[in-house]
Amino acid sequence: MATDRAGFVYDVRLTEHVYREDHPLRPERLRGVHATLERLGAFERDNAVQLAPRDATRAEIERIHAPDYVEAVMQASADPDLDFSRWGLHPFGDTPPFGGMHEASLLTTGASLVAMEEVLAGRMRVAFNGAGGLHHAMRDRASGFCIYNDPAIVCGLLADRGMRVAYVDIDAHHGDGVQAAFYDTDRVLTISLHQDGRTLFPGTGFADERGSGSGAGYSINVPLPPYTDDEAYVRAFDAVVPPLVERYRPDVLVTQQGIDPHFSDPLTQLMISTRAREHCVRWFAATPCPWVAMGGGGYDMDAVRRTWSMEYLIMLGAQVPRELHDPDPPATPASARRLVTDGTDQAIRDALAAAFA
Ligand SMILES: [Zn+2]
After folding, report:
1. 169 CA → ligand 1 middle, Å
2. CA of 121 to the centre of ligand 1 (A)
3. Which of 66, 77, 112, 351 lies at a 20 to 30 A Cα distance from 15?
4. Distances in Å between the alpha carbon of 58 and those of 38, 67, 152?
5. pTM of the predicted model, to two decimals?
6. Which of 40, 38, 48 is nearest to 12 (CA)?
7. List of long-range contacts for 353-356, beta carbons under 8 Å, 24+ apart
8. What angle do CA 279, 281, 329 make, to 5 degrees?
């Protein structure tokens, strides 16, 4: 019988780096998730397994990243006061150089690789690395708080084993780095639901970015209007993700579960709650595939704490206590209702029309 074990990759070293004192991405947020799960007794369940991360190897990083970019990150890590702006690292920008950044990023990436290995070996049904999901990093450029693109590295290594990979990204921002890595191949299906790039970083993720060559139709984008609430979001998810993933028949599911689409998130204008997330993550959990799960964005510390705790409980098949849910999620304001409804309908139509047959 297949295992029902769910891995949670954790080490306090994944939570200790600081991008910059005023930076919105605070890896320490994972401590609240871990402490909440501990308090709820999640790790005492028979099928719960805490997994220790490892460092990614240079070869694993270079599955996606250019060797000279890796060299630059190593230099920036040792001497962050030099100028690394040509590599996307700006002291006052989104992704500043900081001391120890290479080592912290190797461990963050290795945590996703441990999740992948445990799932591949059949020891886990699913494994979650909340520290990962750094989906904006490009081949030779840091971007959007992301240094090494762990979801792309995982998808690439899985594809190298001949597996068909379905990557579903439910962060509020377009998963541009993962899309770029697999734009010309049908071995990795990327689906990203995000806030419309006309209104949010990174400014991409439109339906006509559908892949090229043998990858045509295998990059799927669902750009949603600002103020999209649970009702519209769930409608978009259900219309696009289950039918396309089922049509693709993947060997493995990889998910990026940034929780910045939450209504309380300070960086985005999507308005979803823990209810919509529960719906999406329960669908992931119901698929028959091995599943490698990662975190991503999420800048309201309490929303991160409650949502990722809930999501790991779903992975375990455990009950979700009410305290993890938003007590009173808001709905789209009446003045934006029409724009949200029409924009969501359009995004669904365009995504399905762009998809592989
Ligand atoms: Zn994000």
Report:
1. 10
2. 30
3. 66
4. 34, 9, 15
5. 0.98
6. 38
7. 353/207, 354/207, 354/208, 354/210, 354/217, 354/220, 354/221, 355/210, 355/217, 355/220, 355/244, 355/247, 356/186, 356/189, 356/216, 356/217, 356/218, 356/247, 356/248
8. 45
| Residues 224/227/229/232 CA torsion (nearest 10 deg) | -40
291 Cα to the center of ligand 1, angstroms: 21
For ligand 1, the distance from its centroid to the CA atom of residue 34, given in whole angstroms, is 21
Q: 195 to each of 40, 67, 218, how far by Cα in Å?
A: 33, 32, 20
CB atoms within 10 A of CB 328: 6
Cα 190 to Cα 182: distance, rounded to the nearest angstrom: 8
Neighbours of 223 (CB within 10 A): 27
104 contacts 15 by C-beta, under 8 angstroms:
no
* Residue 39 burial (CB count, 10 A): 9
- Expressed in percent and rounded to 5, the helix, strand and coil fractions of the chain are 40, 15, 45
Structure tokens at 330: 């808001």
Digit-coded pLDDT (tens) for 235-252: 999 999 999 999 999 999
Ligand 1 centroid from CA 201, angstroms: 8
- What is residue 2's three-state secondary structure? coil
Note the pLDDT tens digit of each residue in 315-356. 999 999 999 999 999 989 999 999 999 999 999 999 999 999
C-alpha 33, offset from chain centre? 16
Question: By C-alpha distance, which of 43, 40, 37, 48 is closest to 3?
Answer: 48
Q: How distant is the alpha carbon of residue 176 from its chain centre?
A: 11
Encoded tokens for 213: 């060559």
pLDDT in tens, 45-66: 999 999 999 999 999 999 999 9
Q: Which residues are catalytic?
A: 136
